[in-house]
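G., the chain you wanted modeled:
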Amino acid sequence: MTLPGTLIIARHHESEWNKEGMWTGTRDVHLTQYGFQKSTEMGTLLKGMRIDNAFASMQVRAIETLSCMLTALELYHVPAEYVHALNERDYGDYTGKNKWEMEKTIGAEAFEAMRRDWDYPVPHGETLKMVQERVVPFYMSVILPLLKAGRNVLVVSHGNALRALTMYLESIPPQKAREVEMLFGATVLYHVDEEGKMMSKEVRKVESKVNA
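Predicted structure as tokens:
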């Protein structure tokens, strides 16, 4: 049975470190002016849609994106919560390093595996598997009951946190983790079943060019 509520997920837009090609991870970095502009455009993708609850990570780039989206929709009354479970993957020792310089240092295959694979370790950081182990329990315990109650829920988070959630929603196996991407400027609307799994989805997006 398809639940009455709609889940809407969106990735924060361009941050100052995205622009510089740096791994941001758990660091708190603001959106660029371009990021603010595109976040507002992302909000307009949902014009005419009711939003009952909103969640973002505790990181400022996600909070700013959510704020822009709700402001564009003139939905100032929507209750918003900021939660650690939706934070970006911790890149450990790679935090703050330039991605493209690191690719040259460790080689293309190790670079791709570290960024995209399911359980590839980062020194003193998190794997995608570890990210899913905090994102999905939050989704199941907090968001899913809202969807069952017929509420439309907007979640603004980060590339890896949303990749991890997408893998659960769409029943994607770990060996296909590299194929999962959450694009900048994309807003995805899901209708899910009682277990929180996808029954149908719709992707809406604005044109975006981000160095990440």
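The radius of gyration is 16 Å.

Shout if anything looks off.
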